[in-house]
């Protein structure tokens, strides 16, 4: 009878300690930091420019603003004001976000330049 009682007690103690051990493993796994992703700077396009050429702030020459803004404003029905403000923003920031809409986070200057009313200055 004493051996059965001892076995039952050991079983109960083991069951109580098991969640504590798993909890400690979960805490250890949660506190380890994942390595930060590194940008790949070796990727180039077919014309030997890096993929992010013209996207990051200051990466364009003023003469490259025209074609970038033409692409940026290609799908709007308000082409004239879009091109005007895009070229103005590109001249100041020397970057134009990729695509025809959005993606402004890649060019902080382009994204943060606001009108007097607080709206976005750059298309």
TrEMBL record:
Residues 1-24 form the signal peptide. The keyword Signal applies. It comes from the Eukaryota. Keywords: Signal. Pfam families: GASA. The keyword Magnesium does not apply. Belongs to the GASA family. This is Gibberellin-regulated protein. It comes from Arachis hypogaea.
């Amino acid at each position: 009878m004493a051996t059965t009682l001892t076995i039952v007690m050991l079983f109960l103690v083991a069951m109580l300690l098991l969640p504590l051990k798993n909890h400690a493993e979960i805490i250890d796994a949660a506190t380890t930091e994942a390595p930060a992703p590194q940008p790949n700077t070796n990727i180039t396009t077919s014309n030997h420019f890096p993929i992010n050429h013209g996207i990051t702030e200051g990466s364009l020459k003023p003469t490259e603003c025209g074609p970038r803004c033409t692409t940026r404003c290609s799908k709007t029905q308000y082409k004239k004001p879009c091109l005007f403000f895009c070229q103005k923003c590109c001249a100041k920031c020397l970057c134009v976000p990729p695509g025809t809409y959005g993606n402004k986070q890649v060019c902080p200057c382009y994204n943060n330049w606001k009108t007097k009313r607080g709206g976005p200055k750059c298309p």
